[in-house]
Structure formats: structure tokens, C-alpha cells
Amino acid sequence: MLYRFIDWTRRCILRLPAGIPTSCALCSIPGTAALCGPCGRQFFSRRPRRCTQCAYPLADGEQVRSLCGNCLRIPRAFDATIVAGDYSAPIDHLVLALKFGNQLALAPLFAQLIVDALLRERAFAMPTIMAAVPLGEQRLAERGFNQALEIAKPLSRAIAIPLIPQLIQRSRETAMQSSLPPDARHRNMRNAFTLAAQAADLVRGQHIAIVDDVLTS
């Protein structure tokens, strides 16, 4: 899914000024946080052992190693993945509410959850610059915002890593990944992204974090 300082079970970063009511995005109980403590503990406390490269939960037979079978078989173009949680109910509903329901107040919550996950990975080497997966021009015009960039903005501030919004560019429009079968998703993304002009010198020697809302393929 997505790259992810403060434990949200103790203090949530999404606070509103005193007197302004809100409610938990999952259970709708009134409060001052986007995610209440009980929902946070119930739905985000599961921490399976994951592949260090793709973050997919390791199967029982894979627990003795750090990489899953797929990452051992298929060379990857990235070194590590940090995720806030598995894309399953009810977490998937939060993602959809941000992405298609225009609930931008959830973006800082996702950023905080990624920070929490990042701090749990003691051996993880912190990136030096950050970028977000860009939307195509047509989809950006339809939606009005890039959900990955909205997550990356508070994430960048929380871990004090520079965000370069225009680092990656779309080279062509693509079909929505959710509309395609798994075997077509890789083809859909092939050659869909490129570095911005003059960016080669900027990224040379850097440790780059790329932020997205969902990691599926």
C-alpha cells in the first residue's frame, strides 16, 4: 500500500479545535479524532510478519526468512516497502472514502499510520527525498486531487523528508487498476511513469520514498 511519529492509540494527529465535533471514520462515535482508540486497536493492531521487500504477509512456511517467495523469484525495482495495514475490510472503506468520497481529512490519518509503521521498522534506512505516484491529467481533473500526494504532504512534514511533487510524471493515461484482472495490471502500468526533465541529477545517489494509497501489483 503505500511509504508510512506518534502512536495513534495515545495521540491522533488529526485533531480539531476545541468545541468542533467530529466522529470516528469507522464507527461514527463522536469525538475529536478521525479514528477512535478502540477502532485503532481493533483494526490496526494486527502486525503480521511481512516480506521486507513487498510487505506482503509471510506464510507459515516463509517465516524463517525475510523475503516472500515472489520476491525471491522475481527481481524487484525497489528495496523495501512500508505499509499501514492490509487492504481488507474495514480499512479498504477508509481508502475508498478518501479516494472517491473526497474525505481529504483522512489523508493525515493515513500519513500518521504510515509513520507508526515506519517507526516499528528499526532497521529501515530513512529515505532522503519523497515523491507521490502521480495521477493522469484526465483523472486528476475528474477527482480534483491526487490522494497519494495528499497523504505524502503530512507524511513529509512528520518525518522531515523533502517532498518533490513533480519528481515523477505520467507518460500516458492508464486504465484504473481496480477495473483490471491481476494479470493485466502489470501491462497497464508498463512504461506509464517517467522522471521529470532534469531530474536525473536530483535523484542520483538518493534514497527515494514513493507514496501511494494502495499497493496491489
Distance from N terminus to C terminus (CA atoms, Å) equals: 10 Å
| Uncertain residue segments | 1-19
Mean pLDDT: 84
Strand content: 5-15%
Query: What structural class should be given to the helix and strand makeup?
Result: alpha+beta
General description of the model:
This protein has 217 residues and is α+β, with helices and mostly antiparallel strands. The chain contains eight helices and six strands, in the order ββααααβααβαβαβ. The relative contact order is 0.16. Helix 4 (106-120) packs across helix 6. The protein has a two-stranded antiparallel sheet with strand order 1-2. A two-stranded parallel ribbon has the order 3-6. It has a two-stranded antiparallel sheet with strand order 4-5. The protein is globular. A hairpin with a 6-residue loop joins strand 1 and strand 2. It has one domain (22-211). This is ComF family protein. Belongs to the ComF/GntX family. It comes from Herminiimonas glaciei.
Characteristics:
alpha+beta; two-stranded antiparallel ribbon; disordered N terminus
Helix/strand layout:
Layout: E1 22-23, E2 30-31, H1 37-44, H2 69-73, H3 91-99, H4 106-120, E3 129-132, H5 137-143, H6 147-159, E4 168-170, H7 182-189, E5 193-195, H8 200-203, E6 208-211
Parallel strand pairs: 3-6
Antiparallel strand pairs: 1-2, 4-5
